[in-house]
Amino acid sequence: MRKTILLLLLSVGAFSVTQAQKVVSSFRQAEGTAYSMQLLDAQYKSAVHEDSTLAVFTGPDQQKLVAAYQQLLQELGRHLRQNGFTWGKPTRAFNRFYFNADGTIDYYLFNFNPQEADAQKQAEFQRLMAEFIKTHRLAMEAPVPFSQCSPVVYKD
Fold this sequence. Notes:
signal, globular, 6 strands
């Protein structure tokens, strides 16, 4: 099967969770709201971090996280295709997921460069992502709520 999503994991600051599921279309849109990265980062611990004392997953668990995260993004690609969504060209974005300790997605923030995706494409992606986070989860659990982010290149 051809890969639909390429990703590079990055380490992130701390994050936390409430029971609301929310998709926010830009980091700026989230500023000054209950979904700001600063507020969420204070509640969710970083899944991975260069300082292992600040990371939820360390050692071999980091490789399991990478595999689970890649699987989640591949499921997202399938969800988009099944709903007739196409990118038209490779499209760069930045994802920021906030997970409950059981792997359910509490919040998803994303950011597209305006040259990568127009407002209509972003709005449709946001709508489909809101559906996706209701039914999909990361196949990893942790003792605390956690976050993970990465740049991503979406492809048809």
